[in-house]
From TrEMBL:
Source organism of the structure: Temnothorax longispinosus
Record flagged with keyword Aminoacyl-tRNA synthetase: no
Taxonomic classification: Eukaryota, Metazoa, Ecdysozoa, Arthropoda, Hexapoda
GO biological process terms, semicolon-separated: glycine catabolic process; methylation
Coiled coil (UniProt feature): none
Residues annotated as domain Aminomethyltransferase C-terminal: 358-437
InterPro entries attached to this UniProt entry: GcvT, GcvT/YgfZ/DmdA, GcvT/YgfZ_C, GcvT_C, GCVT_N, TrmE/GcvT-like
Protein name from the UniProt record: Aminomethyltransferase
């Protein structure tokens, strides 16, 4: 049975952070051989009777500042000690890259049945007040006035130069209440941006309240795949057939109040479920009791989103990339274009009208190794014209795929290109995205 394992522990007044799960378990004297699960209480019991000195797998955060930072950034993760294969530090969080199965097997399971991802590292924020909609629009390119209650929209924070500060999903609970999910890697920047703009609104007597949800108190899990709806329907009373893609509803499971949003990062039908942390493990256990469902980690999540043609912040988009360059012009709502009152509007609207010098495109590789981030994109004559921003094997297609930036006049679909990988060149073609057809659900 799956239980939570805290990768942040308190022992003798100090925070103990495990930077390598396997080494930590081995250091605890064969606990892996005697327990299929290690809980917070059991871990603390074992530490309580022994030494808490620094070792090659335990980091002793001795200073209050380090301890506070550990509290904020190292968090509860949903992991089975008998199945976790690899854990990495991702944006300050210890997260599973994969479980016992390979990334490819986990990826294909998601495409055929359903997988459960722990995405509690993402920033969940409630924004409320009579001016909440205007406030969020002042930072983004979306149209919240015309968004239906219960509906959500993908959008971007932009800077005054039109660059993308982050991509996020905003759900409209009511005219004065919104729910925002943004990237863990941009937690500090997003929080600062939201608070600074809140101060601006206060100065002109605007009413906006911000509630950053503590990830130790509010978890977030993603159930993705063609059987995800059937799995979740067995646990909830609401009719999920009425819940469209990019819509959200609040309901209860075993007395726990949860939010179900029909969205995801895989290109499959699926749901993101915001749930109180105290109830998250019970919900995960119930979901995993259903044979269709397996746990999946960051590795499968990345290969799935790549096949779906979805951007990863800091790789495919950043502060120097505009929505137009990133092939995300559709995120700039019609009304917002007419009003031209969002950050970076001058540059973005100019690019929409006259074009850009670079464009994000899909790339299909032939035989050879995958072209990873930073790999040069060359013309058939060998001239460098761009770079890969994301790339890897496609388990679904059985060949390497990538996305990257190159001049629009050279980015014709079907056009030939070369990739430079480890000093050798390999052939490829420019293609449309997504690489694998999306299967988002529209209500019956």
């Amino acid at each position: 049975m799956i239980k939570s394992i805290m990768l942040r522990f308190v022992a003798r007044g100090r925070f103990i952070v495990c930077d390598n799960l396997e080494k930590c378990l081995n250091a605890l004297g064969g606990v892996r051989d005697t327990c299929s699960v290690i809980t917070v209480s059991k871990f603390k019991e074992r530490l309580g009777g022994g030494s808490t000195s620094r070792s090659n797998c335990l980091i002793d955060s001795a200073t209050p500042r380090a301890a506070a930072d550990a509290t904020r950034r190292e968090n509860r993760r949903l992991s089975s000690t008998s199945t976790v294969s690899k854990i990495v530090n991702f944006a300050g969080w210890l997260l599973p890259v994969q479980y016992r199965e390979t990334i490819a097997v986990s990826h294909l399971h998601t495409r055929s049945l359903a997988s459960l991802f722990d995405v509690g590292h993402m920033l969940q924020t409630r924004v409320s007040g009579k001016d909440a909609g205007e406030y969020l629009e002042s930072l983004t390119t979306c149209d919240l006035k015309n968004l239906s209650k219960g509906a959500a929209t993908l959008t971007v924070f932009t800077n005054e130069k039109g660059g993308i500060l982050d991509d996020l999903i905003i759900t409209k609970d009511d005219e004065d209440r919104y729910f925002v999910v943004s990237n863990a890697g941009r937690r500090d920047e997003d929080s600062q941006l939201l608070l600074e703009r809140q101060d601006d609104f206060k100065k002109i007597s605007k009413n906006v309240y911000i509630d950053f949800l503590d990830p130790l108190e509010q978890g977030l899990i993603a159930l993705q795949g063609p059987t995800a709806a059937t799995v979740l329907q067995s646990l909830v009373k609401i009719d999920l057939q009425t819940l469209k893609f990019m819509n959200s509803v609040k309901t209860e499971v075993s007395g726990s109040r949860i939010r179900i949003s029909r969205c995801g990062y895989t290109g499959e039908d699926g749901f993101e479920i915001s749930v109180p942390a105290n109830d998250a493990i019970d919900l995960v256990e119930r979901i995993l009791e259903i044979p269709d469902v397996k746990l999946a980690g960051l590795g499968a999540r990345d290969s799935l989103r790549l096949e779906a043609g979805l951007c990863l912040y800091g790789h495919d988009i950043n502060e120097n990339t505009t929505p137009v360059e990133a092939a995300l012009t559709w995120l700039v709502a019609k009304r917002r274009r007419a009003e031209a009152n969002f950050p970076g509007a001058k540059r973005i609207l100019s690019q929409i009208k006259t074009g850009t010098t670079k464009k994000r495109v899909g790339l299909l590789l032939g035989q050879g190794p995958p072209a990873r981030e930073g790999a040069p994109i060359l013309t058939p004559e060998g001239e460098r014209v761009g770079s890969v921003t994301s790339g890897g094997p496609s388990p679904t297609l059985g060949r390497p795929i990538a996305m990257g930036y190159m001049p629009p006049d050279l980015a014709q679909f079907g056009g030939g290109v070369l990739f430079e990988v480890r000093g050798k060149t390999y052939k490829g073609t420019v293609t449309r995205m997504p690489f694998v057809k999306a299967k988002y659900y529209t209500a019956k």
